[in-house]
Amino acid sequence: MCFSATASFIAGVSLSVFGVATVKKAKRKAEIPFAMIPLFFGVQQIIEGMLWLSFRFEAPLLNVIMTYVFVLFSHVLWPIFVPFSIGLMETVAWRKKVMSAFQITGIAIGLYLLYFIVRFPVTSEVHEHIVYVLPYVKEHPVLEFYVAATSVAPLFSSHKIIKIFGVLALLLFMVAAWFYTVAFFSVWCFFAAILSVVIYLHFKFGNERTPELAHHRA
User: Does the N terminus or the C terminus of the chain have fewer Cβ atoms within 10 A?
Assistant: First the structure.
């Protein structure tokens, strides 16, 4: 949540509690990584809350630490973790192969961005929202590969609600990019946290799958 420290902490704690509840609903070990996404979103929002405090109380060391931890979440963890977690739950052979391509893409873009995070200074600034200054991230085709790994990959899942997750992720991604270009990653991560509800519904209502998968298992 990129609007204030208070909002970030409230969202962070709420999402963390929500995330624990989601993990508890996972029935198989292969489902746990995907179920952990809301919990990770909660941790990420708490991190940004700490970052807001670093500006308020002029704490440069805290600012640097929280800035780097946040971009490791937003730029490295998500493109690697999302297709990995979805792929673990997939059982349809051709979908697993497609998901493998997204996993490779996610690893490649995550490591690519990690290189620039380590190689060049990363800073954060407040311009109504928190802006993360990191070179090369928004250059083409970096952003396209990032979107593919985090938002397009779910569309190839055999689970209906995960497909809905992908559709909403793409829509929210476009809203964040259109209205909050400068503070894109901060705002996008707030919108993405909304998707935690979709993940919870996936586990609450029995991991609904497409007819294709039902036929495959039959």
Answer: C
